[in-house]
Amino acid sequence: MIPLAGALLLVVPFAPSLFDTCLSSNYYGNYNDGPTPYSIFLPDAACLDLWSSQTLAPLASISEAKHAIQQLVWVEQEAVDYTLIATIRSFRPEFDSFLQRLTAPKRMGRDQDVLVAPERETMGYELLYQTPTAALLSVSESTARTIDMLLPRFWKSSLLSTTPVDFLPVPDKAVKHVKEVLANLRFNPDVAAIVDSISVPQMINDIRFLTGEDGVSGIVSRHSFAEGSRVAASWLKARFEETGATCELQPFLQGFAPNVICAYPSTVNTTATVLLSAHYDSRGSFGSTRAPGGDDDGSGTMAILAIARTIARKGIKFQSNVQLAAFAGEEQGLLGSKAYARKLRDIDANITVMIQADMLAYRKQGEPPQLGLPFTIGTTEVTQLVANVSAIYSPELKVGFTAACCSDHQSFHEQGFPATQVFERAGDIVDPMYHNSGDLSDREGYDFGQVKSIAKVQLATLLHAAGYELPSESD
Ligand SMILES: *[C@@H]1O[C@H](CO)[C@@H](O)[C@H](O)[C@H]1NC(C)=O
Ligand SMILES: *[C@@H]1O[C@H](CO)[C@@H](O)[C@H](O)[C@H]1NC(C)=O
Ligand SMILES: *[C@@H]1O[C@H](CO)[C@@H](O)[C@H](O)[C@H]1NC(C)=O
Ligand SMILES: [Zn+2]
């Protein structure tokens, strides 16, 4: 689709006004470098000339591809705390050795010990844009799909679409419902009793299955290509269905574990849908096949499962459609959620609130329990609603903003749906087992109490946003 050598790439700080120009039909998405979102365009020369002549184009980078563009991949350094960065030598050599791994000659043949030159099609790459903390690469499709296994620890990757995408801001009318819920938000003792009943012992059981710590599930890794991710998907579907939901395993890309999408019906005839989600796929240390993903994102996954179990235990019926989703392919660039959000956009779904939970469990010694909300990607009104719900139902949480960003809620936000994220810390990532094969639940700093407090916020927001009915006392 983006074939030719000589293609022009424009990387420019995001601004809505960019989409009032000829660039809008050559848009390939927004990607982050630190706290700044950048928009990527592949304009033709005429459009680029026209745009350049009409704008001062501050901080824009234009590059020309020397080779035919293969799969474009954005890689970026994550928002990790300086205490974690101090544990590795420096980002530069780490990134350089990553590039070397991309081009490393492949050992071919079983008995002849020959090293063959790297083949462009299979191992080559072209570096199209680079800052100290982000880069845009063109790599083969197969390399792109497994690039997360080659990346240095505190970097993550996102695959760009192979065709231009639309820029869809969240329309005012989509935010109307959230604004009403926020304006009418008051403490409700029924909601408090429901959310307080979320079971920590149940969460401990659930996470130990997902990480393989129970010694029974046999799960070693929930990486999207690992066998364990399939085991986890079927298990999650069965557990959610036990709570009265109807679930589907939805494949989205060849080779990847499927999304697990579960729905509860509404008691009234409405198209409105509230969606809570997490990603169940995981990532381990470079070179290791173990990826227990206890915090990232077993914690978010067990939180939505705990919410489902509470819905069943309390006999809750909703006055709006409710969906609970466990996505795969997050670690390769939000691939599962992008597919699902596009699907919902295609059917013009009416998502009133979407909240992604990604990493809820880690609490650094000496810090209070926290709730981190995104300060870049997300819908302000949804973020405000979550903050105010937290103050009412989980006052033990210190609420603040985080630069750790861009989990699956970004996929929904990009499709014009009101969305936000909940995270374990009002600041950068400090979990020393982040993207590490040691990311287990049974370890220092893994705080089930904090997970419960954040799950209370998710469920209370769901109850207020969807409306609900409880069984009458005589039932
Ligand atoms: C949300 O909470 C803040 C802080 O308590 C408060 O000032 C604000 O009025 C609340 N917003 C709404 C819409 O209730
Ligand atoms: C629900 O409402 C829509 C739109 O008003 C209507 O077309 C549809 O028939 C209704 N469905 C049911 C089951 O009442
Ligand atoms: C979407 O849901 C909201 C909240 O219930 C409702 O007000 C609105 O009319 C719905 N929109 C559509 C297109 O069904
Ligand atoms: Zn994650």
From TrEMBL:
<keyword id="KW-0479">Metal-binding</keyword>
<keyword id="KW-0378">Hydrolase</keyword>
<comment type="similarity">
    <text>Belongs to the peptidase M28 family. M28B subfamily.</text>
</comment>
<dbReference type="InterPro" id="IPR045175">
    <property type="entry name" value="M28_fam"/>
</dbReference>
<dbReference type="GO" id="GO:0008235">
    <property type="term" value="F:metalloexopeptidase activity"/>
</dbReference>
<dbReference type="GO" id="GO:0006508">
    <property type="term" value="P:proteolysis"/>
</dbReference>
<keyword id="KW-0645">Protease</keyword>
<dbReference type="GO" id="GO:0046872">
    <property type="term" value="F:metal ion binding"/>
</dbReference>
<dbReference type="Pfam" id="PF04389">
    <property type="entry name" value="Peptidase_M28"/>
</dbReference>
<feature type="domain" description="Peptidase M28">
    <location>
        <begin position="259"/>
        <end position="443"/>
    </location>
</feature>
<keyword id="KW-0732">Signal</keyword>
<dbReference type="InterPro" id="IPR007484">
    <property type="entry name" value="Peptidase_M28"/>
</dbReference>
<keyword id="KW-0862">Zinc</keyword>
<protein>
    <recommendedName>
        <fullName>Peptide hydrolase</fullName>
        <ecNumber>3.4.-.-</ecNumber>
    </recommendedName>
</protein>
<feature type="signal peptide">
    <location>
        <begin position="1"/>
        <end position="24"/>
    </location>
</feature>
